[in-house]
Design goal:
alpha+beta, Metal Binding Protein, Guanine Nucleotide Exchange Factor, Chain A, 4-stranded antiparallel beta sheet, 5 helices, 22% helix, protein tyrosine phosphatase activity
Length: 210
Protein backbone atom coordinates (compact mmCIF):
# COMPACT_ATOMS: atom_id res chain seq x y z
CA UNK A 1 0.00 0.00 0.00
CA UNK A 2 2.75 2.45 0.90
CA UNK A 3 5.49 1.53 -1.55
CA UNK A 4 3.17 1.01 -4.55
CA UNK A 5 0.62 3.71 -3.70
CA UNK A 6 -2.26 1.22 -3.67
CA UNK A 7 -5.54 1.56 -1.82
CA UNK A 8 -6.45 -1.27 0.55
CA UNK A 9 -8.88 -3.08 -1.83
CA UNK A 10 -6.32 -2.88 -4.64
CA UNK A 11 -3.49 -4.18 -2.46
CA UNK A 12 -5.64 -7.03 -1.13
CA UNK A 13 -6.67 -7.96 -4.68
CA UNK A 14 -3.01 -7.97 -5.76
CA UNK A 15 -2.09 -10.36 -2.94
CA UNK A 16 -4.97 -12.68 -3.73
CA UNK A 17 -4.06 -12.67 -7.43
CA UNK A 18 -0.77 -14.29 -6.43
CA UNK A 19 -2.17 -16.38 -3.60
CA UNK A 20 -5.95 -16.92 -4.05
CA UNK A 21 -6.36 -18.66 -0.69
CA UNK A 22 -5.09 -15.59 1.21
CA UNK A 23 -7.58 -14.35 3.78
CA UNK A 24 -7.45 -11.81 6.60
CA UNK A 25 -9.61 -11.37 9.67
CA UNK A 26 -11.94 -8.41 10.05
CA UNK A 27 -9.75 -6.80 12.71
CA UNK A 28 -6.69 -6.66 10.47
CA UNK A 29 -8.78 -5.40 7.56
CA UNK A 30 -10.07 -2.58 9.78
CA UNK A 31 -6.48 -1.68 10.72
CA UNK A 32 -5.43 -1.52 7.08
CA UNK A 33 -8.41 0.69 6.22
CA UNK A 34 -7.35 2.99 9.05
CA UNK A 35 -3.75 2.90 7.80
CA UNK A 36 -4.94 4.00 4.36
CA UNK A 37 -7.10 6.78 5.83
CA UNK A 38 -4.06 8.13 7.70
CA UNK A 39 -2.01 8.32 4.50
CA UNK A 40 -0.21 4.99 4.98
CA UNK A 41 1.50 6.03 8.19
CA UNK A 42 0.74 5.54 11.87
CA UNK A 43 -0.21 8.92 13.30
CA UNK A 44 -1.01 8.70 17.01
CA UNK A 45 -2.25 12.32 16.97
CA UNK A 46 -4.88 11.59 14.30
CA UNK A 47 -8.51 11.72 15.40
CA UNK A 48 -9.13 8.54 13.41
CA UNK A 49 -6.39 6.74 15.33
CA UNK A 50 -7.66 8.02 18.68
CA UNK A 51 -11.20 6.81 17.93
CA UNK A 52 -9.89 3.38 16.92
CA UNK A 53 -7.77 3.16 20.08
CA UNK A 54 -10.76 4.02 22.28
CA UNK A 55 -12.92 1.39 20.56
CA UNK A 56 -10.22 -1.25 21.13
CA UNK A 57 -9.87 -0.15 24.74
CA UNK A 58 -13.57 -0.75 25.42
CA UNK A 59 -13.22 -4.24 23.95
CA UNK A 60 -10.04 -5.13 25.83
CA UNK A 61 -11.08 -3.62 29.19
CA UNK A 62 -14.82 -4.37 29.50
CA UNK A 63 -14.62 -3.82 33.26
CA UNK A 64 -13.22 -0.31 32.57
CA UNK A 65 -10.77 -0.51 35.46
CA UNK A 66 -7.06 0.30 35.38
CA UNK A 67 -7.35 2.18 32.09
CA UNK A 68 -3.95 2.94 30.50
CA UNK A 69 -2.86 6.48 31.32
CA UNK A 70 -1.86 7.15 27.72
CA UNK A 71 -5.56 7.02 26.81
CA UNK A 72 -6.17 10.28 28.65
CA UNK A 73 -5.24 13.62 27.16
CA UNK A 74 -3.21 15.79 29.53
CA UNK A 75 -5.27 18.11 31.70
CA UNK A 76 -4.64 21.60 30.22
CA UNK A 77 -4.28 23.02 33.74
CA UNK A 78 -1.11 20.91 34.09
CA UNK A 79 0.58 22.08 30.88
CA UNK A 80 1.97 25.19 29.27
CA UNK A 81 -0.38 27.66 27.53
CA UNK A 82 -1.80 26.57 24.20
CA UNK A 83 0.13 27.39 21.02
CA UNK A 84 -1.14 30.04 18.61
CA UNK A 85 -2.82 27.45 16.38
CA UNK A 86 -4.55 25.58 19.20
CA UNK A 87 -7.69 26.67 21.03
CA UNK A 88 -8.37 26.12 24.72
CA UNK A 89 -11.88 25.34 25.93
CA UNK A 90 -13.00 26.43 29.40
CA UNK A 91 -16.07 25.94 31.57
CA UNK A 92 -18.47 28.80 30.84
CA UNK A 93 -19.39 29.12 34.50
CA UNK A 94 -16.10 28.98 36.44
CA UNK A 95 -13.57 29.38 33.56
CA UNK A 96 -11.70 26.20 34.48
CA UNK A 97 -9.64 24.94 31.50
CA UNK A 98 -11.06 21.62 30.27
CA UNK A 99 -9.56 20.53 26.93
CA UNK A 100 -7.68 21.71 23.88
CA UNK A 101 -8.81 21.72 20.26
CA UNK A 102 -6.37 18.86 19.54
CA UNK A 103 -8.59 16.62 21.71
CA UNK A 104 -11.68 17.16 19.54
CA UNK A 105 -12.56 14.06 17.51
CA UNK A 106 -14.34 15.13 14.34
CA UNK A 107 -16.91 12.93 12.63
CA UNK A 108 -18.70 12.86 9.30
CA UNK A 109 -21.97 14.77 9.42
CA UNK A 110 -25.01 12.55 9.86
CA UNK A 111 -28.28 12.58 7.98
CA UNK A 112 -29.81 15.29 10.16
CA UNK A 113 -33.51 15.17 11.18
CA UNK A 114 -34.08 11.93 9.26
CA UNK A 115 -31.85 10.16 11.80
CA UNK A 116 -34.27 11.07 14.58
CA UNK A 117 -37.47 9.90 12.91
CA UNK A 118 -37.81 7.21 15.59
CA UNK A 119 -38.10 9.98 18.21
CA UNK A 120 -41.06 11.62 16.40
CA UNK A 121 -39.68 15.13 16.58
CA UNK A 122 -42.62 17.48 16.03
CA UNK A 123 -41.06 20.87 16.69
CA UNK A 124 -40.31 22.44 13.29
CA UNK A 125 -37.49 24.54 14.76
CA UNK A 126 -35.79 21.39 16.01
CA UNK A 127 -36.36 19.58 12.72
CA UNK A 128 -34.83 22.36 10.66
CA UNK A 129 -32.29 23.33 13.33
CA UNK A 130 -32.94 27.06 12.69
CA UNK A 131 -29.94 27.14 10.34
CA UNK A 132 -27.54 26.64 13.22
CA UNK A 133 -24.58 24.29 13.45
CA UNK A 134 -25.94 20.76 13.18
CA UNK A 135 -23.45 19.52 15.79
CA UNK A 136 -24.31 21.08 19.14
CA UNK A 137 -21.64 19.16 21.05
CA UNK A 138 -17.93 18.48 20.90
CA UNK A 139 -16.92 14.81 20.94
CA UNK A 140 -13.48 14.60 22.49
CA UNK A 141 -10.93 12.10 23.72
CA UNK A 142 -10.96 11.44 27.50
CA UNK A 143 -9.03 14.03 29.52
CA UNK A 144 -7.25 13.31 32.80
CA UNK A 145 -9.85 15.13 34.91
CA UNK A 146 -12.51 12.66 33.65
CA UNK A 147 -10.76 9.57 35.02
CA UNK A 148 -12.65 9.32 38.37
CA UNK A 149 -16.00 9.45 36.53
CA UNK A 150 -15.02 6.88 33.89
CA UNK A 151 -13.49 4.11 35.98
CA UNK A 152 -15.85 1.17 36.22
CA UNK A 153 -18.71 3.06 34.55
CA UNK A 154 -20.14 2.33 31.10
CA UNK A 155 -21.99 5.65 30.93
CA UNK A 156 -22.61 8.74 33.02
CA UNK A 157 -22.43 12.50 33.29
CA UNK A 158 -19.37 14.67 32.75
CA UNK A 159 -19.17 17.44 35.35
CA UNK A 160 -16.77 20.35 35.59
CA UNK A 161 -14.08 19.25 38.08
CA UNK A 162 -14.16 22.69 39.73
CA UNK A 163 -17.77 23.90 39.88
CA UNK A 164 -19.58 20.60 39.02
CA UNK A 165 -21.55 22.21 36.18
CA UNK A 166 -22.94 19.48 33.95
CA UNK A 167 -20.85 19.68 30.78
CA UNK A 168 -22.13 16.64 28.93
CA UNK A 169 -22.05 12.87 29.13
CA UNK A 170 -20.11 9.76 28.15
CA UNK A 171 -21.06 6.33 26.91
CA UNK A 172 -18.60 3.64 25.89
CA UNK A 173 -21.29 2.14 23.63
CA UNK A 174 -21.72 5.47 21.84
CA UNK A 175 -24.11 8.40 21.64
CA UNK A 176 -25.91 10.11 18.79
CA UNK A 177 -24.76 13.59 17.83
CA UNK A 178 -27.40 16.21 17.07
CA UNK A 179 -26.39 15.91 13.40
CA UNK A 180 -27.60 12.30 13.46
CA UNK A 181 -24.21 10.58 13.44
CA UNK A 182 -23.48 7.89 16.03
CA UNK A 183 -20.10 8.32 17.71
CA UNK A 184 -18.58 5.31 19.53
CA UNK A 185 -17.35 5.56 22.20
CA UNK A 186 -18.67 9.01 23.04
CA UNK A 187 -17.30 11.68 25.38
CA UNK A 188 -19.66 14.54 24.65
CA UNK A 189 -19.29 18.16 25.79
CA UNK A 190 -22.16 20.55 24.99
CA UNK A 191 -20.94 23.61 23.13
CA UNK A 192 -23.26 25.80 25.18
CA UNK A 193 -21.37 24.87 28.37
CA UNK A 194 -17.88 25.90 27.26
CA UNK A 195 -16.08 28.85 25.70
CA UNK A 196 -13.12 28.51 23.36
CA UNK A 197 -10.20 30.94 23.38
CA UNK A 198 -7.17 31.09 21.14
CA UNK A 199 -3.84 32.78 21.84
CA UNK A 200 -2.89 35.72 19.63
CA UNK A 201 0.69 36.39 18.48
CA UNK A 202 0.76 39.61 20.56
CA UNK A 203 0.04 37.68 23.74
CA UNK A 204 -3.70 38.29 23.96
CA UNK A 205 -6.66 35.99 23.43
CA UNK A 206 -9.64 35.83 21.13
CA UNK A 207 -12.88 33.93 21.52
CA UNK A 208 -13.31 30.93 19.25
CA UNK A 209 -16.51 30.86 17.27
CA UNK A 210 -18.51 27.72 18.11
Amino acid sequence: MKSEGLRFPEAYAAVRAVRPEARMNAGFARQLELYEAMGCRVDATSGLYKCYRLQRLAQEHPELQDLPQEVFAIDPTNTCPASNNEALYRCRKCRRSLFRSSSILTHAEGSGPAAFAHKRIKDSAQRHNDGQDKCTSYFIEPVQWMEPALLGMMEGQLLCPKCTLKLGSFNWHGEQCSCGRWVTPAFQIHKSRVDGIQALPVGGFQTVKT
